[in-house]
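go over both lines:
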Amino acid sequence: MKDTVYVLGINGSPRSYGNTYKLLRIALKVAELEGARTKTINLYDYDIKPCLGCLSDIQETCRYPCVIDDDMKQLYDEVLKADGLIIATPIYWFNVPGVLKNFMTGSLLWRI
């Protein structure tokens, strides 16, 4: 049985030193104070390619691991290990950055 909660922090900002990152660190620090183990991932440090839409052709092909050869396999493994996710993002033009959309499309579709 697992004793320690693992919380994964996802920084969706291109600035790994900016306000979004700073607020994510505060949230993760609070989790640590409550006894959680944490890790921060800066999405802009990874090669995350857009979804190919495999689900539209044959539903069974959209599954873990993805057919796209990029860094998402490494990120999938972290998401699967995590007990909780904190996703931090800036808002550009009333939406989240594209790299975060790519991450969410890839990492969440196969878990539904």
